[in-house]
Write a structure and sequence with these properties.
Layout: H1 7-12, H2 17-28, H3 35-48, E1 52-56, H4 59-73, E2 81-85, H5 90-98, E3 102-106, H6 117-122, E4 128-131, H7 143-153, E5 156-160, E6 168-169, E7 181-182, E8 189-193, E9 207-211, H8 214-224, E10 228-230, E11 233-234, H9 245-254, H10 258-275, E12 301-304, H11 308-317, H12 337-340, H13 346-354, E13 355-358, H14 366-377
Parallel strand pairs: 2-3, 2-4, 4-5, 5-8
Antiparallel strand pairs: 1-9, 6-7, 8-9, 10-11, 12-13
Bound molecules: pyridoxal-5'-phosphate.
Length: 380
């Protein structure tokens, strides 16, 4: 059987360091706001190349806290608009709504599944304050296009980097050409998720904000801690969202191997790209041979087919597990019916109807990838 993602195998490969780290925290008697969290925050800020990193309870909170902090700073006010891609996990939209702002949905580019900057420009109004490039499936969005747009219209750029730990934008951003930049450091602020299945995954929930902006960082950190910087003094109506000591210690064990793990994911992507009979099977890929580089950390390897459900059943019958990211787009969810009930977003909808995610992980062997390829190529 080939699992979609074998978390047990992945986590076992970090032993005995993982269990040692957990025991150290367990024996320390200190479980929140301690050394392990401060240590990981510093390491992750260094890794992303930002001045600040704030651990949070999860990725949804990381995004929400960024928007709440901008609200406190007066950069964004209730009802202001934020452009987000229509094909993302619902968390991106919920974070904007939670902060009392309005997510305006933008079609993706069918070639990349990431936000289409040309469509984004048509959505800008006098109330637009920010744009959220989601680096979907682990592939960096068109950050040069996003920066050009943001510069022209005075927008904040908030990266949803929940799926893109370690991805490098090596083309250089406007004004910063010839410098490699990592996800988390490509806008004004970024949110990460350390959900267990992510490229950098905890053993439970976790998240982080990265930013160069000291004021934003201080306010977000305070809101995450009940709006307090000093015990029992509350400046903001905050929330309780913490990266705890156990999860931080786990992440510190895993971070040093992230680049190597991402490189292995790229090797598997290359096997899929080169060996699946795309045209013969009428399958589409948004990954082109020249795209298998550091700008994509292949959190997900998506393929697209009008016969997606049949193909998924065919693979399952041969004990190969796949997933769909995502079966229903956010604007078609019952939870958001009031906000988007009648909106048509045909490009995003087609992606949701046709996407199938193949098994990919740093521990998937060439032989297992070969079995997936053979099984797909045998699909008639
Ligand atoms: C694109 C995207 N944004 C946000 C999130 C939210 O992260 P979390 O599940 O840690 O709250 C996720 C992950 O689930 C995600 O994939």
């Amino acid at each position: 059987m080939i699992k979609y993602l074998d978390l047990q195998r992945i986590n076992a490969s970090f032993e005995p360091e993982l269990s040692d780290a957990l025991l150290r925290v367990s024996h320390s008697g200190w479980y929140l706001h301690g050394e392990a969290t401060a240590h990981f925050e510093q390491e992750f800020a260094n890794y992303c190349g930002t001045a600040h990193c704030i651990g949070t309870g999860n990725g949804l909170d990381a995004l929400t806290l960024i928007f709440l902090a901008y609200r406190e700073l007066g950069v964004m006010n209730a009802g202001d608009e934020v452009i987000v891609p229509a094909n993302t996990y619902i968390a991106t939209l919920l974070s904007v709504l939670r902060a009392g702002l309005k997510p305006v949905l933008c079609e993706p580019s069918p070639e990349t599944c990431n936000i289409c900057v040309r469509h984004a420009e048509t959505l800008i109004t006098g109330r637009t304050r920010a744009i959220v490039p989601v680096h979907l499936y682990g592939r960096l969005a068109d950050m040069e296009g996003v920066h050009n747009l943001a510069n022209r219209y005075g927008l904040k750029i908030i990266e949803d980097a929940a799926q893109a730990h370690g991805a490098i934008y090596d083309e250089g951003l406007p004004g910063k050409e010839n410098q490699p930049w990592r996800a988390g450091n490509l806008g004004d602020a970024a949110a990460f998720s350390f959900y267990p299945a992510k490229n950098l995954g905890a053993l439970g929930d976790g998240g982080a904000i990265t930013t160069h902006d000291a004021e934003l960082a201080a306010i977000a950190r305070s809101i995450a801690n009940y709006g307090s910087t000093e015990k029992y003094i509350h400046l903001y109506q905050g929330v309780n969202s913490r990266l705890d000591e156990l999860q931080a210690a786990v992440l510190s064990v895993k971070l040093p191997r992230l680049n190597k793990d991402n490189a292995r994911r790229r090797e598997i992507a290359k096997l899929y790209k080169e060996n699946i009979h795309w045209e013969h099977l009428n399958l589409r890929s948004t990954v082109h041979a020249g795209d298998i580089n550091e700008a994509n950390v292949f959190h997900i390897f998506p393929i697209f087919s009008s016969r997606r459900d049949e193909l998924q059943r065919h693979l399952a019958a041969h004990n190969i597990h796949t997933q769909i990211h995502y079966p229903i787009p956010p604007h078609r969810q019952e939870a958001l019916r009031q906000e988007y009930g009648m909106q048509q977003l045909p490009i995003a909808e087609r992606i949701h109807n046709e996407e199938l995610s193949l098994p990919i992980s740093p521990l998937l062997t060439d032989e297992e990838a070969g079995q997936v390829i053979d099984c797909i190529n045998a699909f008639v």
